[in-house]
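Please go through the sequence and fold tokens given here and tell me how the chain folds. Record follows.
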Amino acid sequence: MSLAGFDTVIRGGTVVTAADAVTCDVGIRDGRIVALGSDLAKGAREIDARGLLVMPGGIDSHVHIAQPSGEGIVMADDFESATRSAILGGNTTVMPFCLQEKGVGLREALNGYHALAEGNCYTDVSFHLIVSDPTPTVLGQEMPALAEEGYTSIKVFMTYEGLRLRDDEILATLDSARRSKQVVLVHCENEDAIRYLIGRREEDGDTAPYHHATSRPIAAEREATHRALSLAEIVDTPIVIVHVSNREAMEEIGRARMRGQKIAGETCPQYLVLTAEDLDTEDFEGAKYVCSPPPRDKPSQDACWQGLETGVFDLFSSDHCPFRFEDSAGKKTEKGRKSFRWIPNGIPGVGTRLQILFSQGVATGRIDVNRFVELTATNHAKLYGLYPQKGTIAVGSDADIAIWDPTAKGTIRNADLQHGADYTPYEGMEITGRPVTVLLRGEVAVENGELVTQKGQGAYLPRGQSTLFR
């Protein structure tokens, strides 16, 4: 096959999608894939991918960037640093959350987030909308109008005072989302049970970081997962249960699917390679691992791996929520040193997500490369209205491509991640496989593992409807 006029040809790699793996060339023109085949005509730029995997750029659909985090607390990443780390890690699209604060409309919140992102991104971006104040105006006017503009996903919280919604507010938000065909992401933990347990721990003097985990038990996540699924069933709305950490919550998802509900499940690296014991360390080091839900135990790790292998989980995301450790505006806030209740919840991970899953999943034989692509790119694009523009290697799709060396050995080190946090919870982890070259819409952004582009190359992406509505 011979076609003239390619801007770039990726030659001789194993092209991997969610369905296939085949050795061929990839021809790129004007930012899109225009040909797949053997012996393509020479491109203005040639990339030798022999012996390498040519995969869709990762889509991380669960990322917190520059998000208000409480009085005196500052998130470690802005859009420049977060998307820089993301693209170095093989991602070409990230989906941060736009947080609606109380008394602020969704449109006003979006204007602020767009101002922060504009001109500062190395990857493409698209926002989910966090609804914390579901007023009649928000539900009846703003959500439908924004859906028409391509903001087709909503998030609600069942925990965190100031963010969590009552059951009737969740129902109203779900019902509005159903009418506007916006998929709803749900953070499932029972806030009343957690607040009670926090009080008990503090009464007993158990205020170290480890007790963040004991105050947020599996039962609190399981109960909230069941309740979220029940509320979604009542108003017949598709939902995504995010950052699932254990078998019991997974079983709730399985039962809902057996009832015919349209639902997706997501898990994250921290539930595969960390445990609650990581929070039980001296010198306040355990604060580095404080996130919600917390890491669990080895049986829960095994269950989450099983969920990735068997299809319980559709998505593998980072839940990147970074705070600096050696910082009074981060993990070492003065109040946090006195009680775990005040330690900022969240850990960095946008730059390590793909390498952890490839190393611990593909290289060990737990999953194959097709499942890797499905979990890290294709399903994100489908569930959040970006497919087939993103998430696959096909003629007509954006040339968002990560070329991987599947045999490269290395070690995760914070110094290499180029995010805003001063630590990674995965420091020292030995890995196999890494992205060596990354293209964003046909332009090389990472070459030989080094950033070779400037901020501002990333674009904002309006989206269509989730496949859960089809």
Q: What stands out?
A: The longest strand covers residues 6-16. The chain has a mean pLDDT of 97.
